Amino acid sequence: MIHHLRAAGVSLIVDARGTKVPTILHWGADVGELAADSLIALAHGLTPAIPPSSIDAPPRLSLLPTVFDGWSGRPGVGVHRPGGTDASNLLALRLIDQQATDTSLVLTTSDERAAVTIVSTIELTPQGVLRVRHTVRNDAEVDRPLAVDALAVVLPVPDRATELLDFTGLWTHERTPQRHRLGQGAWTREHRHGRPGHDDAFLTVTGAPGFDFRSGEVWATHLAWSGDKVIWSERSPLGPVVAGSGELLAPGEVTLEPGETYESPWTVAVYSDAGLDGVSARLHPWIRSWSTITKPRPVVLNTWEAVYFDHDLPTLLTLVEQAKRVGVERFVLDDGWFTGRTDDRRALGDWFVDPERWAGGLSPLIDAVTGAGMDFGLWVEPEMVNPDSELARTHPDWVLGHPDAPTWRFQRVLDLDNPDAFAYLLGRLDALLTEHDIAFLKWDHNRDLLGGSAHRQTTALYRLLDEVRALHPGVDIESCASGGARIDLGILERVERVWTSDTNDPLERQSIQRYTGLVIPPEYLGGHLGAARSHTTWRTSDLAFRLATALFGSAGIEWNLNEASEPELELIATWIAHYKRLRPLLHTGEVVRVDSADPALHAHGVIAQDRSSAIVAQVALAAPLTAIPSPLRVPGLDPERRYRVRPLDLGAPARSIQDVPPVWLTEGSVVLTGRSLAEVGIAMPLLAPEQAQLFTLDAE
């Protein structure tokens, strides 16, 4: 039969008639309620002509495209029998079962001769988010293993989507956008880091030419997986355009014994006719519907850029006092607390409190933190080991990779798939969380895998996180991977926070947060107030710019407050008070980004779900192109309501280069309708480069 799933302005129509592998007839804008005969007519009307020099049947793109169907592009499935024939070239899958609800489909295809069954699961959430994955089973008798080479989700995209956007990056420069026209052939991104990596494609968007944040049709895909992966967009000479994604499997990495299965990661796909913000407007509410976050995101102080490895209890106690004074809610002790850890060249894996540096254990510090009304967090890097460690010397068989391979940050990777290594790590983490009043783990991952099975390592990581969470359900976990190298919807199911990037430079952060937030809601995005001179770029930034940038997300501090002046401490306290007041809006509202013809100017904001209030930032990244920039337009408001617009002073005013500010700013506020603000806008101050001005909007 033909199945039609509908939700939130999205339609998915799947033709599952007969015995062929089902095909997606339409994924995109809602086509309305269609009776069975109308669906048949639609399918009939979409049956294409047969071109010359092709297979003698109307070409079709199935859910599992292979050469059997005449598909000459990248196949969706690849399997073979070790020592035998390439089964993927011989697969003749046939539909043997279909189960449907109003929101999901489960389609089972099989090839009895090849002894292979594949189950395809399709879901359309109430927010209009599409999820698809496949599961392959080896149906052979004894002693006939099946090697899985690929099992990917391939989705059709209309040919009017000719422009492609995805991302790349480096350490401290993550989520750098790149876009180009999609020509004939495939644009393929393969990631072999054992984690998504700083250059992660992250979100692949195929759209109508010129799509931007607020307009244009787009079809976006994201692979919810924290290991190796392959992402591609392909335009076939035969006509179809596809978006594909799946786990990147090394030869022999997944081999199924009879009766065993392999399940692909979920591909998360979003259609929007409202540009990139429309993608976020679907993803963020969906993520919040299953989010592990159950309480407000606390203001964090992390000790890394304050003291690095120089752990000294008296110094840290003064830092606790300063944190309490400005209103910090969570104090996190970073790297350097465990046995022998005096720099990054030794001791990873020896997860015991260092008795020399912490003669009284961690309790004196934890007691001071909790006594000051804050909770305590601790940095760990469970997946890694230094060769110079008792663990590596005692258990060299637990270390992945060739022993002569180069180290990375003087460390190697522990084999989490080794049951003894897994048990050791689970035991140490459980002991730390049981013996100490720890509310938060910053879980780091500071190198690529470069050896071993990325598939087995990733699945074992998920098991380890799941077991730690089961043993200690009240503990928050942050995913950090040398900053933002492991941010995806697979890890997000298991954490309450991600470290967006290792840079706290606000100029870098403006872009990193802007694009990471396309997928990840702001309450997950850790963003910290750093020192005036960035530890990663050596750029010096005004306090006002740093405060405004760190406000939008899960806010924190990464600065030695003992070195801050009295006026600076007062400003930080004011900023934290504003954050706490605005937190319900910042972490539940709809994120909007404003398109600008001037690349030097960014604007973004958060609109309350009931459209009663908003907070917006106008940001000058560099000198503008014109003496008087265009008025700031604010999308997403209720067009019929009137809003009072006021500047928000975080205590440190933004610097402007102007003789006289806009008239309305001299008067303190102005009242305009939501429609006027969206279509016409409001004059802005002439900000100096690397400055940001915040505004609040409240309905009257």
TrEMBL record:
<dbReference type="InterPro" id="IPR031704">
    <property type="entry name" value="Glyco_hydro_36_N"/>
</dbReference>
<dbReference type="InterPro" id="IPR013785">
    <property type="entry name" value="Aldolase_TIM"/>
</dbReference>
<dbReference type="Pfam" id="PF02065">
    <property type="entry name" value="Melibiase"/>
</dbReference>
<keyword id="KW-0378">Hydrolase</keyword>
<dbReference type="InterPro" id="IPR017853">
    <property type="entry name" value="GH"/>
</dbReference>
<dbReference type="InterPro" id="IPR050985">
    <property type="entry name" value="Alpha-glycosidase_related"/>
</dbReference>
<dbReference type="InterPro" id="IPR031705">
    <property type="entry name" value="Glyco_hydro_36_C"/>
</dbReference>
<dbReference type="InterPro" id="IPR013780">
    <property type="entry name" value="Glyco_hydro_b"/>
</dbReference>
<protein>
    <recommendedName>
        <fullName>alpha-galactosidase</fullName>
        <ecNumber>3.2.1.22</ecNumber>
    </recommendedName>
</protein>
<dbReference type="InterPro" id="IPR038417">
    <property type="entry name" value="Alpga-gal_N_sf"/>
</dbReference>
<feature type="domain" description="Glycosyl hydrolase family 36 C-terminal">
    <location>
        <begin position="603"/>
        <end position="697"/>
    </location>
</feature>
<dbReference type="InterPro" id="IPR002252">
    <property type="entry name" value="Glyco_hydro_36"/>
</dbReference>
<feature type="domain" description="Glycosyl hydrolase family 36 N-terminal">
    <location>
        <begin position="22"/>
        <end position="257"/>
    </location>
</feature>
<dbReference type="Pfam" id="PF16875">
    <property type="entry name" value="Glyco_hydro_36N"/>
</dbReference>
<keyword id="KW-0326">Glycosidase</keyword>
<dbReference type="Pfam" id="PF16874">
    <property type="entry name" value="Glyco_hydro_36C"/>
</dbReference>
